[in-house]
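so my prof wants the structure for this chain in the tokens format not the other one, which i didnt know existed until like an hour ago. anyway here's the sequence
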Amino acid sequence: MRRPVLTLILLSLLTFFFGLGRPAISDSDEAFYAEASREMVQSGDWLTPHFNYTDRWQKPVLYYWLSAAAYLVSGPTEWAARVWSALAGLGLVLVTWHAGRRFGNAAAWLAGAIVGTCYGYFAMARLALPDLPLAFCITVTIWAVLEQRWVLAGTAAALGFLFKGPVALAVPAIVLVPIWWRERRTFPLRATGLLTAAAVFLVIGLPWYVAMTATHGTAYLDSFFVGDNFERFATDRFNDPRPIWFYGPILAGGMLPWSMYGYLLFRRDGKLTNDEWRLLLWALVPIVFFTISIGKQPRYILPVLPPLAILLARALVSEIEGAVASGGSRKSLSIGTWLTALLYAVLAVLLYRARPIFISVAPWVSTFAIGVIAAAGLAIAGVAASRTWHRLPVVLPASAVVLLLSVQFGALSGIRPEPVEEMAALVQSHRTQGQPVGEYQVFVRNLVYYTRFPQVELFSETAALDFLRRAEPVLLVVGANDLPRLVSVSGVTTRTLGQVRYLDPANIRLRTLLDPLPDQDLETVLLVTNR
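here's what i got, hopefully its the right format
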């Protein structure tokens, strides 16, 4: 038992923790959590989260508490902001391994390795967001109920409730009810167990909500439970409506590079066992639930990856054992392995073509990383060509680690200071008399983390025009493409104080890799003044 756990921990240290603090806090939701945690330490208010020095009611408090505690130890660093996501990734690897032991040690280890090297968890573990900790809590809640460990179930549900609210209860419920209904004669849910879990949940999960309501009144309850939960699920207030097939590509992308073996999930030699039914319901019911919702988001289905990983690992190990027993001939393994090798080759070519837009990485590092990806693809192809299938459980995870780290450090991060840090330095050097600083559609979340003072968030053109027209001197952070129109409409003559070039990772799409256009994909961000 010790060797599998240690190897999975080592693998997770590479994919989730190595270079965790290297990229700057991105202009995404993670900036909310990184900055709100910093302001929590600065203000000493550990009850009400604040972002940009105003109340932030959109999410519960636990991730802020944990990051703020890390800041007290190491200071407000990128590593401290993200470490709890990385720890949640490690926890998911170990829980998946433990839950997968029903299918044998080989399948359990491979399932943990899949979770530790799939792109979805790799990306989320490197962001200061509560979504991966929530996925960990949901996974532990479901597993604990199935194992009749009620104190653990209540604790995990309560922590999930403090990470993101009612979804921490909803997802386990919609998974466990069908499982219980199918197995109700052999899997009774005893009242004493449920009451124990409920009592633990109430003791851990409710006090902060009660304190918030006592401090801010029912307005907080309406804002969070109605606005940020019900309306986010049932309306398009927060997210544009997405097609019914939205989660198909998301799942395929989240499971990369293991997706090439996904067809093995549909190969059946007999009836599903009870354990397989549990995993299938565990994976499918949340997908259906979130497909019904209006406000679909890729992060919502993170909790389905562990059961899918176990099912895929079991199928892959079965195919490998069959191939070894039959002397190497296994068409199903050949298809998936050659497709995986092809995936690596295609990614290497696309990343090579896209090198001009990877401005945060030294060119030689990018070239080296692309070569390493190609070498990993050749290693996988070598297994397929030689039909040495017994090597797959080692070669595939090792190659996945190489791929993920090469993409991260060969394309997305490396050179510091990054553009947002450069812009923060420009702002601080030119803000000599406390001038108001506004952001218009760029660095709208993360600039405050690096400047350490409040900014004016300009979410509309009208707000930006009014800001430029102020009688007092102001500083405006704005894209070079947007400034000419603002100047033309406002009639204000601006003066440029500095600029940075910026590739927003959130805007990288398949088109970006297929047809990289530096003039279009790289944005010039200006710091201007109206005086």
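also thought this was worth mentioning. The beta strands are 50-51, 54-55, 437-440, 456-458, 475-479, 495-502, 523-529.
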